[in-house]
Write a structure and sequence with these properties.
This protein is mainly alpha-helical. The chain has a single domain, classed as Up-down Bundle (de novo design (two linked rop proteins)). About 85% of the residues lie in helices and about 0% in strands. Helix 1 packs antiparallel against helix 2, helix 2 packs antiparallel against helix 3 and helix 3 runs antiparallel to helix 4. It is elongated, with a radius of gyration of 17 Å. It starts with 8 loop residues before the first helix and ends with a helix. The mean pLDDT is about 90.
Length: about 130
């Protein structure tokens, strides 16, 4: 039986992003940008790890906090690929693909956070009734 987070589309896309980021990072490790490569891999892994951990939390506030951290890691990845792009260490095609993936992840995670918020507000209003 799979863990529930494994069924989330945002989690599956985040796993795909880790693979993509690792491929980008492998081209950077041979340059003076290897610190950026290391940070890109770690920030990418942070997205999937925080989605999984947040989904495993019982309380909605905890869930939401882990999803916010994952979203922050997405923004970190955007800054990292932009830095590599400025150094011309990533092809235009790979940059555009990476940016599009991160944009999709950001939108999906924002909707996931909103769904947790909506459940929290619904629970509060039901408790007041």
């Amino acid at each position: 039986m799979p863990f529930t987070f494994e069924n989330l589309t945002v989690y599956q896309l985040a796993l795909d992003w880790v693979r993509q980021a690792t491929q980008i990072a492998s081209t950077l490790t041979r340059t003076d940008l290897s610190p950026l490569a290391d940070q890109l891999v770690r920030a990418s892994a942070s997205i999937t790890l925080n989605i999984a951990e947040g989904n495993g939390r019982w309380h909605k506030n905890d869930k939401r906090q882990f999803f916010w951290i994952a979203r922050g890691s997405i923004f970190e990845c955007v800054a990292l690929i932009q830095a590599t792009n400025k150094h011309r260490s990533i092809s235009s095609e790979n940059y555009e693909k990476a940016y599009a993936t991160l944009e999709s992840l950001s939108k999906m995670l924002t909707k996931l956070i909103q769904s947790v918020e909506n459940r929290r507000e619904k629970a509060s209003s039901e408790a007041e009734s």
